[in-house]
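Milestone M4 deliverable, item 7.
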Amino acid sequence: MLLAISGEIAARGHRCDLVTAQSGGPWQHAVPTGVRHVSLESTKPLHSVLKLARYLNKERPMAILSSVFSANFAALLACHLSTSKTRCIVREAYRAGEEIKAPSTVTTYANKVALRVLYHRADAVVALSSELAAHIGDMAHVPGNRIHVIPNPLLPSTKTLTSKIRTPRLDGVPIVLACGRLELQKDFATLLQAFALVRAHKPSQLVILGSGSQLGSLKLLSARLGIEDDVHFAGHASNPHEWMRHAEVFVSTSRCEGFPNVLLEALDSGCQIVSTNSSDTVAEILDGGRLGTIVPVGDALAIAQSVVEILDGIRKRPSATEHLRSYDLSTITDRYLDVLLGN
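Output delivered:
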């Protein structure tokens, strides 16, 4: 998201630096043309505060935008130590109340105090949803006029199929698709339970894109449910759009999300959607349920019934073209520039 937005900013003639604690990483090859990458050569964001302050003193940018909890702390501390007049904007993509939690009670309390002290110094806070905006206002006591709700943009698809299970038995059988990290937050266990109900009603297959610590337990669960032959763990796919174009339905069973970009991608791909109400942004993205079915978190029966309706042709999705215009990358960049420039 930030790489795409930085590229748009640079394309409009603004000088834009991408400043990272570390050099290298899977994103490095994707730094946009016109964006300068500056590495502070530190192990973690919080270890780079002094180096970031020196960068601000030297380069004196008009504004700095940080994202991810520890990076936000580092940016706010560096701006406080710097002699520059740089506007400091922090971006919240997830609930700060969850991110401050640590194994140690003392550390959690220290994070909570730091959140209130530091976030109050921010010139602006960008939240991905109204719910997150209200949450950060309550947690950090940031005035409402300094919190701006800006959703993530829909990123252009490269329309390249990066991974595919090539086996004859998949041909002609409807695909139910899901993707995400194989972790408890995504609740793929409930998805497997729902798919077992779907599979009992209609021949179908479930493809799950992603990797994570729950892979072993999810495979065991699919075996216990007797659906292992129709469940395919396809691994990480850097571009799931082509899978979405071949699937009859995309299912998101997350317990909690900040802003589920994958739903935008599914809409853009023309795939019908069933999603749990894991965030207030789900209803925003799916236009109150007009563009997809919204079900309660953890309700395997509701998920299964919704999927079956789609596979049986009972529910049709209207065009999302006009709705997706509000998530256009250029439009979202306009809104970020307004905040960065203090307009």
